[in-house]
Amino acid sequence: MDYTLVGGGFMIHFKGEAERIIHKVIFLILPVLTVILIILFHFQVFSPTSEPIIHSLLIDETFEVEKNQLVYYKIEFAAGERVLGIFKETHKFCVDFYILNESDFYKIMGKTEDFIPYLAAKKVSTYNFTFTAPSQGIYYFVFDNGYTREDPICYDKNVEFKLYRI
Question: Which residues pair with 59 in a beta bridge?
Fold first, then answer.
């Protein structure tokens, strides 16, 4: 039997021993390799992207953050629990975003002390993040429109927020 491989402007004819090798590769090795790859992808042992595997949607909200106000979500996490978050703000960059523990949340609410966020994004219109809870406890996802600039574009902001457990 003759095999003809065409590529790069040349042709090669295979007969005899080369024919048996090509036959083995095509009919034995490729199906086995295909089954192995299907198993790996199915059980997520190997992922072709660096994206985290999403397990469940915790928050999917669109809301308004009025000027000089803040909106927050309070969630309890176990130690080591991970989330993936995405938020988008309309128009300009007026809203600040923080992830805080309970004591720092009370500091930002009272506006009396400096607080230390686990994560902060200031004056961004789109932000993607991952967060791993360092210990079991309550964490606050805060959207703050306290931007001091007197610009009507910052008065009331619409925010889309999604949070996934990963």
Answer: 163
pLDDT tens for each residue of 59-117:
999 988 888 888 999 999 999 999 999 999 876 777 889 999 999 999 988 877 789 99
CATH number of the domain to which 112 belongs: 2.60.120.680
Range of the structural domain that residue 8 is part of:
3-42
CB-count burial class (<10 Å; 0-12, 13-18, 19+) for 25: exposed
* Residue 106 DSSP SS3: helix
pLDDT, tens only, 11-23: 555 566 767 777 6
Strand partners, 163: 59, 85
What is residue 12's predicted lDDT score, i.e. its pLDDT? 53
Residue written as tokens 């001091």? 148
Give the H or E element holding residue 59: strand 56-66
Both 151 and 72 in one domain: the answer is: yes
Neighbours of 13 (CB within 10 A): 10
- Asked if 90 and 32 sit in the same domain, the reply is no
Mean pLDDT to the nearest integer, 145-158: 71
H/E run at residue 88: strand 82-89
**Cβ pair 121, 127 in contact under 8 A:** yes
